[in-house]
Amino acid sequence: MKTIYILLFATFILTSCGVKEKVSKDLLSLNIEKQALKKQLDSLSLILKSVEDKISKLDTLKKLAVVTTIKSTSQDFNHYIEVHGTVKADKSVELHSEMGGTITKIYAKGGQYVKKGAVLAQFETSIINSNIAQIKTQLNLATTSFERQARLWKQKIGSEMQYLQAKAQKENLENNIKVLQAKAKKMKIIAPFAGTVDQVFAKIGQLASPQMPILRIVNLDSVYIESEVTESYLKEIKKGTNVLVSFPSLDKEISSRISQVGNFINPNNRSFKTRINIRNKSKKIKANQLADIKINDFKAKGIVIPSKVIKKDSEGNHFVYTIVKEDSITKVFKSIITVTKEYDNQSYISKGLTEGALVVDKGSSLIKNEEEVIIANK
Question: Is the pTM of this model over 0.85?
Answer without folding.
Answer: no
